[in-house]
Amino acid sequence: MPRPTCRRNIGFLPHVTYFKPAGIRMGELDEVILQHDELEAIRLKDHLGIPQEEAAKQMNVSQPTFHRLILSAHEKMADTVVNGKALRIEGGNVTIDNAQIPPCGWRQICRHGWKGKSLDQKGETLLTEQGGAMKIAITSVDGTLEGMVDERFGRSRKLVIYGREEKNFTVIDNAVNMGAAQGAGIQSAQNVINSGAKAVVSGHLGPNAFRVLQTAGVDVYVASNMTVTQAIQAYEQGKLAKLTGPDVNGHW
């Protein structure tokens, strides 16, 4: 009797779960089933560019298991495309991390995209328009409101997480990423996502960090030569420019 698999953590539920070749009736198609844990492995490694060791930790699996999930997903997707089959996403022994996925039970919001929106457990909107995030993350040189905004994102010294409703803040020590050879932007982005912030204020962002934040529905705004307090005020007044893509190369 095979040993039962442990549950794999996933932080994404797709709202599109079926793909088919155009012009072929469904009754004539063979189907390939891509499980949710296989999709999550593809999302973390191939889409977000997260290193395999970190991605395996996020899914609560060993690196060999994560590698097998990647290989299986690649084989299924290749079979689908090369042989003209339909792809269905379903199944898998998974645990859903509700803190990292959009509330897709509310179909109207998912249809228009989760970016810029968040709901509480009753489905009530907590943030709405651009600039309306209730919690924002600001890169900081010294972790104080009076200190300057750190121009770097991935290698910023501190992250100030400011709650606009409570008018208070907490500080995340991001110094471990300052000397990282790679992955600093991705890890800093993950710190922001884990904090619950839905907007980031910083000087510059590289491609990997921007992609991770964008996928998680976190908006990014630019602040330069400002204190953290000034950046918060400028954000609340709608005076900060919003980034639509990375503005520096990786490893900046």
Characterize the structure shown.
With 252 residues, the protein is of the alpha/beta class. The chain has two domains: 8-96, Arc Repressor Mutant, subunit A; 129-242, 2-Layer Sandwich (Nucleotidyltransferase, domain 5). 31% of the residues lie in helices and 19% in strands. It contains seven helices and 13 strands. Strands 10-9-8-11-12-13 form a six-stranded mixed beta sheet, sandwiched between helices. Strands 2-4-3 form a three-stranded mixed beta sheet.
What's the structural domain tally? 2
The poorly predicted ranges are 99-130
Strand neighbour order, sheet with most strands: 10-9-8-11-12-13
Our measurement of the CA-to-CA distance between the termini, rounded to an integer number of angstroms, reads 52 Å
Rg is 20 Å
| CATH architecture descriptor name of the largest domain | 2-Layer Sandwich
By CATH, the superfamily of the largest domain comes out as Dinitrogenase iron-molybdenum cofactor biosynthesis domain
Question: Structural class, from helix and strand content?
Answer: alpha/beta
Relative helix content:
25-40%
Question: What is the 3D shape?
Answer: elongated
Please describe the biggest sheet, giving its number of strands, its sense, and whether it closes into a barrel. Answer: 6 strands, mixed
Strand segment tally = 13
Q: For the record, what CATH class of the largest domain applies?
A: Alpha Beta
Which fold does the CATH topology of the largest domain refer to? Nucleotidyltransferase, domain 5
Instruction: Write down the secondary-structure element order.
Output: EEEHHHEEHEEEEEHEHEHE
> Beta-sheet strand percentage?
15-25%
Please count the helical segments: 7
